[in-house]
Amino acid sequence: MTTENMTALHISTDKAALDVAMIHQFLSERSTWAIGIPLATVQRAIDNSLCFGAYLDGRQVGFARVTTDRATFAYLADVFVVEAERGKGVSKALVAAVMAHPELQGLRRFMLATSDAHSLYARHGFTPPSRPGALMERYFPDVYVN
Description:
Elements: E1 9-12, H1 20-30, H2 39-47, E2 50-56, E3 59-68, E4 73-81, H3 90-100, E5 109-112, H4 118-122
Parallel strand pairs: 4-5
Antiparallel strand pairs: 1-2, 2-3, 3-4
């Protein structure tokens, strides 16, 4: 992908290419959902997920991970683009790559949670739950706060 304001964007599922320190720093310091998350927890999440890195000129500028059985269910989490590259189409390309991944086709349910990017996900068919009364959760928003 290229735009006038951005050189070639490369999206990869190669975990060896991920900048884990950058991912951890963003999640633990700048995200709205994982403040204080330990590095070991981020690494374990990466190890057990299908991960997508977005790169400009070899530098990681975005991340997304999917927890999935690759057959019936997936959960999209930790989607972000660094502040300097926002508004340039990186998040659109990143989510499009996630949705096009061959191991994420034909799933019965694909879920996510977002507080501010509803329009980004709506263009890929995400909607509020059709049966919200059927969904339950255990939610501990301060689990990483000491």
